[in-house]
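Hi,

I'm pasting everything inline rather than attaching a file, because the server keeps stripping attachments. The sequence lines come first, and each chain or strand is labelled.
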Amino acid sequence: MKNCSYVAGIDVGSSATKGILLLDGKPVFKCMLPTGTDLAATARECMRQLLHGNGLTEKDLSFVVSTGYGRARVEEADRTVTEITCHGRGAKALVPRAGLVIDIGGQDSKVIRLDEDGMVADFVMNDKCAAGTGRFLEVMAERLGVSLLDFGRMWKAAKRPVDISSTCTVFAESEVISLLSGGIAPEPIIRGLCDAVADRLLGMVHRVGIAPNVVMTGGVSKNSGVRLSLEKKLSQRVSVPAASQFAGAYGAAIIAHELAQREMTDST
Amino acid sequence: MTQGRNNTIRLHREIAGETRRIKVIRALSRKNWVHSIASLVIDYMQRRGGKPYQIDAIKCFAHDFRSSYLEEKPCIFTSAFVPNELIYGLGGVPFLPEAASGFAASFGLAGESLAACESLWYSPDLCSFHRAGVGASVLELTPTPAAVVVSSHLCDGGKRSLFQISQYHNCPFYILDVPYVHSAQTLDRLARQIEKVAASLEREVPGLSGDHMAEAFANSNAARDYYLNLCNLRTNIPSPWRGSEALNYVVLFLWSWGSPWLTKFYRDLVDHAENIIDTGHYPVENEQLRLGWLNLRPYYSPRLFSYLEEKCQVSIAFEEFSHMYWDRLDASVPYMSLAKKIMANPGWGPLERRLEVIGRIVQDFSIDGVVQFAQWGCRQYNGAASILSDYLKKKGVPFLNLDGDGVDERNSGEAQSLTRLGAFVELLESRKLRKVR
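And the predicted assembly:
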């Protein structure tokens, strides 16, 4: 058992790998890099940045928890925990009143209902296709020739959305091409795409049960177009904390801190 | 076999397309020497110390496959919930194409069968247990049916796909129209239907006669007695038998009632479970949680279960499909007895019947959480997910509806399934930890 108070959480997502370093349970450093194709190497680099950025070595870490779809590839991890538990814990730490977490990552989306103690009470994930995920929006943005960061501004510029009938990435892409060739401006198309994603999430929200204080995490939380559509459909405000993309890594780090504390208690 | 039938089958096979591997397997399955070698291999496995119940199960299928592929006895195709005591009682051997799809998936043969079925215009959104069954039948990987008997209850796709199979093979098709409402009149109506089907089978299929009915019923009742004993042993904490293995043997549970091998299988399995409890060498070491499992499992991949049982130390303590739902059969009133067995299935009739059984399983087997394997294309089970979730929520039992496919690998992502199962286990662990505190 290492006698120190640094712990780390690493979230290897399909698009980005995020890392957070905690000292005595408080975040002191974070980093993010594209996941790429070599998951183990990316996780190693993430860990290197966390440690070197603070003048630390591996020996200084008492516990590491990994999460995300590449969680099993993190060689330095003492424990792997699923992204559902980690996003729940991370969102609760970022927004203490959080009751429902909507996490949209690169290849999946999840809705997590938290109980009064902030633990996962129920959850649901999207089915196997990319419908309603970050990858869906990336493909559409590419087709429209706009940046994902512009979605919010363009959503607001649209008077009303165009109805997009499919969230299947392939079908929706051909629908977007038809709309563009029919002379429809990109703004209402973007609002329609955001509505289509929100509609899909709405079904998942109702499956776990709607709750007050909705928090959005994951890469797509930075896309304010989707947030605006969700707020409209849910008829309530959706919080997006500044570190929303780091919720999974933060949750992993919090669990690492708890496990390190438990080990310390057990050993004394 | 008529020339017309041969031509039809050949035409369908040509449309479906067949690989060299399929041709070889089809030819080998009908060779006497292949079945003789299989018997020798089983004997060798037995001598090398194979577990007696596993040997019994292999022998059970080897015996029936030999009889049906070599046409030693009339092979009757049945749908999953037809009481096969009827077929054994008539001196035939049953063959369940839906259950055989699970076998095909375990041996990596499902892909060709599914492709064959789709090339004949079957929609890929139908249940893969049926699609693979139809495909395997068209490719003649299955034995040749002398007749097909289906029941209308529970599964809608089963009777339709088996009707198609009877058309490909140009053999008699019988459907037991199971009444939804349970009453003395409806039971009597069903009993008379079974009697008519039995009489017609005896007339139409050479080699069938009802002389073996008492023997098949006695086998079924003896197996049932051992099985109830096994269920009782499975309430033990920790679990004395791996649920992943029990889910494999659901095939036997659906297939072999009436066969003498089933009696031996359950007798030896009871001995095995008793021995495990006596010695304390449980299959899931340091069992932490107990799951109830609804519907079937993916048969092509063992990874989900090794993850649960070995990594997470979670037992599948009992399965919905392993629930014993019928009373002892009475050979003096065989058709009424089989009618009662069919009507007792808790999956048939109002959903409350199924919920009550699930509630009882949760209680009797000390279940911490329930997983329903939501088989792609299964209307019967997936349609009830929301009511089931509410029912279990009211009882305070967490529920996971795990999307997947038992046969068609293309319809699910293993990593996604592992994440869902992992998160569910974490949820259960955190609940347990808080209860302890």
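Chain A touches chain B through 17 residues (CB under 8 Å).

If the labels don't parse on your end, tell me and I'll reformat.
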